[in-house]
Amino acid sequence: MKDEALLAQMDSIIARYPKSRSAIMPLLHLVQASEGFVTPEGVELVAKKLDLATAEVAAVATFYSQYKRRPVGDYHVGVCTNTLCAVMGGDAIFSGLKDHLGIGNDERTSDGKVSLEHIECNAACDYAPVVMVNWEFFDNQTVESAKELVDKLRSGNPPAPTRGPNTLPTWKENSAVLAGISDGRANEGVQAGPASLAGLEIAHERGEA
Amino acid sequence: MTSLKPVLSKHWNETDSFTIAGYQRNGGYEGMKKALALEPDAVIASVKDSGLRGRGGAGFPTGMKWSFIPQGDGKPHYLVVNADESEPGTCKDMPLLLANPHSLVEGMIIASYAIRANHAFVYIRGEVTHVIRRMQQAVADAYAAGYLGKNINGKGYDLDLIVHVGAGAYICGEETALLDSLEGFRGQPRLRPPFPAIAGLYACPTVVNNVESIASVPSIFTHGVEWFQSMGTEKSKGFTLYSLSGHVKRPGQYEAPLGITLRELLDMSGGIREGHTIKFWTPGGSSTPIFTSEHLDVPLDYEGVGAAGSMLGTKALQIFDETTCVVRAVLRWTEFYKHESCGKCTPCREGTWWLVQILKDLENGVGKAEDLDKLLDLCDNILGRSFCALGDGATSPITSSIHYFRDEYLAHLSAGKCPFDPVASTLFVGASA
């Protein structure tokens, strides 16, 4: 994983910050974009780039739940089971997906396509119950719609997110975006979902906007 | 009767609202031009006079926070915007940045100019890829337009804006943990004082503000201080985003002057889902003590909610109807705090662990009545004794739910199990799912 392009991207990320150590988080996202997860080699490379001990980088990598220490699927599925989503159907969706996929929390299907995780509140409560795939929004899910979603992911026909790009990127592709490498897709997708517009629409109906 | 007042959300129904062209068509960056024509201290004075207070939860006056930055100290100053929106129930900043990221960019330019910062950061949670794309693109477009970089708008002022992406840690919404994270460390809170205004990012004077606070700043300069002051209540000025979620007919974002009530919001949005009644709700996320149907007329401003025994918080109105088990709801929130506790201090790290064990037994009907007192005693030893507000927040749902729903806790014990059917509270009850 020491190809020239990757090293050049690392240098450009480090150059954004007044102090190099601040680049540690985007560099770890970039390692995931290259390797799929934070590998020991990735930790060493980040440490070398930032002139840190590997233990210092590993300490950071293990603190944050988005950094994975083993491979996830091409499509990493997160089901919100924080209170509001859980009550409104998130618990049923999560247990339904575990049964349907035959895997548990933080596990991956044998074909390597899909991994499953229960996640905390993802700031989309007005679209509950919420499912994220590669950290793209799939709003207003049911047990059936979520099963259909993962079936499509496994069969290679990933549907578009509700509020996101026109097609669903892979885990590695989206990890690059998180590292700050533009994929040029910011203009795709809706500007706002229906719930985001609820108040504005009512204000118009009432002559208050 | 309070009306809705879309300001930040006014143009979210336009399909290009997130582009620089769409933003400028509706007057975007005019506030920046007016602010940059003033002296920095005059900008701070205007924001102070407007009465704008922090929209991230604490409600600290924004202009006053800016005025704490020492001037002429020879050190770099920094603006850091907290876009780590992760408080359960809170869902306002992400749709704002998805639909209108330039309002934040413009606000950041004004704020940075006021506090004499040449570097500004926005720390966005990492689990929202498309929001991050929109923010990155907005920053790139603002650079291209000459609103960021060197000699902004020909005014001789330089500013670099860096989009920094988190990696899944609620604690990084705590401002000092956020700064540690941004410096490249594990996100753990710092002892205060010194406050960030004196020793923040890289031990330099730093302002940390919430997304909505900063995105509200341009409107003060476009429409004027008096316009802003004309909305809201005596000590809670202006407009804000209320986020309605849960068992309501029409969940979503409702922008209104501060002081609107939940009854008013429910009346205009169609109310609770058909055939059901409200049981409990949060005024501002899971860390704010819960309310019940008794509190529908509490003015949702900083003072009103405080006087009624909770906090305005993030204005995340999570509504639960009578099908919801309050013990299950509180257990799940408590599991969240346990998971997100950073481990730095003992009361929070160990306390949240014990809270979960006891609540699990209670929910499963195998606890004891004395467990309620034990829970309250534990909460008493966490609240005010933890290193940061995460520990305090963890106690809010527990103490408030025992206050209002002690009988429901006890009903679990007499039934030997949870007396609620979880299917009844789902949105797809009655469907084949």
Automatic annotation (TrEMBL), chain A:
Coiled coil: none annotated. Its cofactor is [2Fe-2S] cluster. Keywords: 2Fe-2S, Iron, Iron-sulfur, Metal-binding. GO terms for molecular function: 2 iron, 2 sulfur cluster binding; metal ion binding; NADH dehydrogenase activity. This is Unannotated protein. PROSITE patterns: COMPLEX1_24K (PS01099). Belongs to the complex I 24 kDa subunit family. Signal peptide: none annotated. It comes from freshwater metagenome. InterPro entries: NuoE-like, NuoE_dom, NuoE_N, Thioredoxin-like_sf.
From TrEMBL, chain B:
It catalyses: a quinone + NADH + 5 H(+)(in) = a quinol + NAD(+) + 4 H(+)(out). GO terms for biological process: cellular respiration. SMART domains: NADH_4Fe-4S. Residues 327-372 form the NADH-ubiquinone oxidoreductase 51kDa subunit iron-sulphur binding domain. SUPFAM superfamilies: Nqo1 FMN-binding domain-like (SSF142019), Nqo1 middle domain-like (SSF142984), Nqo1C-terminal domain-like (SSF140490). One of its GO terms (molecular function) is NAD binding. Pfam families: Complex1_51K, NADH_4Fe-4S, SLBB. This is Unannotated protein. It comes from freshwater metagenome. The lineage of its organism: unclassified sequences, metagenomes, ecological metagenomes.
